[in-house]
Amino acid sequence: MAKQALIEQRPWLLASISAAVAYYFLRDNPVGEGIWGLALKGASVGLLALYVLRRLPKGGHQTDGLLLVTALALASAGDVAIELDFLTGGAFFAAAHIVAVVLYLTNRHPRPSPTQKLIGAALLIGTPLVSYLLSGSIETTIYSAFLGAMASAAWMSHYPRYRVGTGAVLFVVSDWLIFSRMGSVDLGVVPDLLIWPLYYAGQVMIATGIVQCLRGEQPVR
Which among 87, 48, 55, 63 has a CA at the least distance from the CA of 202? Predict the structure, then answer.
């Protein structure tokens, strides 16, 4: 029954999940190489953006919803571009983070708790710091400043922290696993196993959490 409801009411979300799962299991398979792999990877978050666009409520909150759609669309472009050129992909993701920061800062929590402030500051400062320690790359650290700003702003927003904030943290951890490959930290097969699931799960948590708030299905904090 739940699966049938998902197909009927959230077809673009189901399509996004299907593309993400297919990419994960086919990426090292000849079927998933080349154009098909790029298509599946780009479609995963691209269809998530379409899901958000289709779920936007009529009337208010259109600007917030369109900012979210734009951030997801830029991330989808980054997913494809990073397979072709690492710097170009990073530029798309940095742009996505900037758009997300605008969204979160316009929806700041009116009365953040001391713990919320502490975690927000830790994400803002700690994300680029850990990224540098893992990668030893100045370019990566500069990108990570945008990543940390996004995660910090998400945690400090009025959106549910255990959906949107946690989703942003999963995004950060996924990127840390990527950066671990660039430096002297050897995590074995862990990056191969977890980079994509953590990243995609984070994007789904962010997208669905914000959409539910925009539609009034979940109260903002």
Answer: 48
CB 146 within 8 A of CB 95: no
Look at residues 137, 147, 133 and name the one whose alpha carbon lies nearest to residue 92. 147
Number of domains in the chain: 1
Look up the pTM and report it. 0.91
Compute the distance between CA of residue 54 and CA of residue 10 in angstroms, rounded to an integer. 9
- Domain annotation covers residue 124: yes
The answer to the question of residue 59 being in a domain is: yes
The tens digit of pLDDT for each residue in 87-121 reads 999 999 999 999 999 999 999 998 889 999 999 99
The predicted-structure confidence for 165-206, as pLDDT tens digits, reads as follows: 999 999 999 999 999 999 888 899 999 999 999 999 999 999
Domain that holds residue 78: 2-214
